[in-house]
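Researcher: Re-running this chain for the archive, since the previous output was lost when a drive failed. Same request as before.
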Amino acid sequence: MKALIVIIHPNIKRSLINHRWNEELSKYPDKYDVRQLYEVYPDEKIDVSAEQQLIEQYDKIVFQFPFYWFNCPPLFKKWLDEVLTYGWAYGGKSGYKLSGKKIALAISVGIDENEYNAMAKYKYTLAELTRPFELTFEYVRADYRSFFAYYGVELNSKKEWIERSVPRYMGFLENL
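Model: Regenerated structure tokens:
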């Protein structure tokens, strides 16, 4: 079965790495369905029912986004708040529609990994900073998987550096 890749980037055309990952995903329409939230909802008015129906069709879902200011783009937070409703995502008689679905994050990170490691004494590793996503998906009984991160986007925007990320990202998706 295909995986759903939900790209949440406010300006994918200006992105170097998320745009490149999207290009690679488009080469495999038999494996991946891509949904770009900022293109679908430029006004940020989310069709909750449509999103829920879409999510129900997939067993593997990856949320791909840039990590900036130690968080996700605002549309992803809004999506989580509005789509993961009581009685659908959790609780009620028909809740837990994400139960058992493999869910992961694919994150492009501005700073280098060693910069996060330098902040580790404060517990600011990327694993700590993404813990709310992990807790959210555990709460709705999804099978949350380890995240994929590619660090140093701000400093390493050369084509060869970006190209090195592609097989790593695709390998991550294959092993989901």
